[in-house]
Amino acid sequence: MKSKHQAVLDHALRVPGTNKLAGKRVVLASSSPRRKAILKTLGLAPEVVPSTFDEDLSHSSFDNVYEYPVATATEKAVEVYERLVREQPEDGPDLVIGADTVVLSHYAPATSTTPQEVLPQTRPDILEKPLSKADNLRMLLELNGGTCEVVTGVSLVYPIVTAPGYSIKSIEERTVVHFAENSLEVLQAYADSGEGVDRAGGFAVQGLGGLLIRKIDGDYSNVVGFPGASFFKFLDTLVEEEDDFLDI
Q1: Hey, CA dihedral for 25, 220, 208, 68, is it positive or negative?
Q2: Phi first, then psi: what are they for 67, rounded to 5°?
Q3: Single pTM value for the model
Q4: Fewest Cβ atoms nearer than 10 Å: which of 86, 90, 98, 231?
């Protein structure tokens, strides 16, 4: 009998990770159309169930800022997983994907031969979505002519037989974005366009925001909102290393 869950699309590469997802209930705990589009391009069409997690974790509670988006992604995925198991116990999810993207300002690529541990350490600021067009302009002025780092945490939640009934596996992806030296007129025009208000860091590299960028080092899709290549490689790794991955 053909499964009612068909998240893997016909054009997906037939590799261990996608083969394991065949016939499984795969859920994306995000309403982001960009994440959905990236996954669809790469052959996966998960069910979309946005998380109700408030995304209110304190930045200062994390000694390592890179742990923040991973923790938020985990909270999103766990909230959706537990809700679906509670509401639909006979058809719980096989895999819930949570993601959170932030922009770290004041990022300085290592170019010195001096050991990193003896260099002055400046904690990057975490830039999430701007609160207004004015806040968007503030962010752009902070980023203009410099570099920032886009970090996406991805957390996967799937069932296991031992308590608490699910396992969590996570990765992070980092991409460095180099901003051009843009005039105040250009930055103001972009902020006024409203495009950046719903984007971490206040810019959309795949839209008008691409005019502000000089160069990208790393995964372009990660800057858009989801590290597709790393995600599928991670699935392959879990199939290889976790004996019970998606077998419950």
Answers
A1: positive
A2: -75, -20
A3: 0.91
A4: 90
Return the closest-CA partner of residue 48 out of 70, 69, 17, 26.
26
| SS3 label, residue 242 | coil
Distances (CA, A) of 11 to 27, 35, 121: 19, 18, 46
H helices, E strands: number in the chain: 7, 7
Out of 100, 192, 243, 247, the active site residue is: 100
Q: Is the pLDDT of residue 110 over 90?
A: no
Q: Is 160 within 8 Å of 198 (Cβ atoms)?
A: no
| Cα 111 to Cα 184: distance, rounded to the nearest angstrom | 29
104: three-class secondary structure by DSSP: strand
10 an active-site residue? no
Whether 8 and 22 have beta carbons less than 8 Å apart is answered as yes
